[in-house]
Amino acid sequence: EVQLVESGGDLLQPGGSLRLSCAVSGFTFRSYWMHWVRQAPGKGLVWVSRINTDGSITAYADSVKGRLSISRDNTKNTLYLQMNSLRADDTAVYYCARESYHGALFDWGQGTLVAVSS
Amino acid sequence: QSALTQPPSASGSPGQSVTISCTGTSSDVGGYNYVSWYQQHPGKAPKLMIYEVSKRPSGVPDRFSGSKSGNTASLTVSGLQAEDEADYYCNSYAGSNNFVFGTGTKVTVL
Fold first, then answer.
1. How far, in Å, CA of B101 to CA of B93, rounded?
2. Which chain B residues contact residue A106 at CB under 8 A?
3. Residue A106: what pLDDT?
4. Separation between Cα atoms, residue B56 and residue B36, nearest integer Å
5. Is A58 helix (H, G, I), strand (E, B) or coil?
6. CA nearest neighbour of B107 among B10, B40, B16
7. In chain B, which ranges are E strands?
8. How confident is the model at residue A103 (pLDDT cuts 50, 70, 90)?
9. B chain contacts of residue A46, beta-carbon cutoff 8 Å
10. Which residue among B36, B46, B98 places its CB closest to the CB of A108?
11. Closest by alpha carbon to B14, among B62, B84, B69, B73?
12. Does B36 contact chain A (CB < 8 Å)?
């Protein structure tokens, strides 16, 4: 069974840093591109970032470029999102997702909540 | 990276059909056949319903279908059922490894 489990969400102040993790099982992690998607409370889905199979290619939404960084450890079957210089508008549930075919997100985690407030 | 435009809401009675539009530009929807659709029930993670414009993942009922014309993609739900009531989001590849979601549509089964 495919499983993606996010962790690391927290309540923190503006300007703070946080690292989210997404532990996966049930599939060969190193063979799949992965994504982070976020959803602010009561709002829609927003694509955040994408990483290729070996971590050499990354892409980011303009709103997070330079502040958020995606990475992966294929030996630990884990995807990461390093979040720096956090702002109130980064408050959201963050989902990790597995890409199969071009851009299709077939499997999702349950999400982890990041709240940024003073 | 502007969000794709979807109608805020759509509705239909059980058994009827509803079609949701997703309008982008030639740099995203119109430029690639990599449009996908997601269903999200309250408090739940999204679920893939359609990928590559019109393909259905295993287990998704054939009541769900997708299409595209120019810069606009569409999702049609035929034979509406109570469990189809949810939020629906389109997503498109936008070049240079970037993606963009739609604004979302709340489907109500009357």
1. 9
2. 48, 51, 57
3. 96
4. 10
5. strand
6. B10
7. 9-12, 18-23, 35-40, 47-50, 64-69, 72-77, 86-93, 99-101, 105-109
8. confident
9. 3, 101
10. B46
11. B84
12. yes
A102 pLDDT band, cuts 50/70/90, is confident
- Residue with structure tokens 């071009």? A102
**Across all residues in chain B, what is the average pLDDT?**
97
**Residues in chain B closer than 8 A to A95 (CB atoms):** 45-46
Question: Which string of DSSP letters, residue by residue, matches B58-89?
Answer: TTS-TTEEEEEETTEEEEEE-S--GGG-EEEE
Could you give the CA distance from residue A64 to residue A45 in angstroms, rounded to a whole number? 15
CB contact under 8 A, B97 and A95: no
- CB contact under 8 Å between B46 and A59, yes or no, is no
For B12-59, write each residue's pLDDT tens digit: 999 999 999 999 999 999 999 999 999 999 999 999 999 999 999 999
Q: Do B45 and A111 touch (CB under 8 A)?
A: yes
The count of CB pairs under 8 A between chains A and B is 72
Q: Do A105 and B92 touch (CB under 8 A)?
A: no
Cross-strand partners of A21? A7, A80
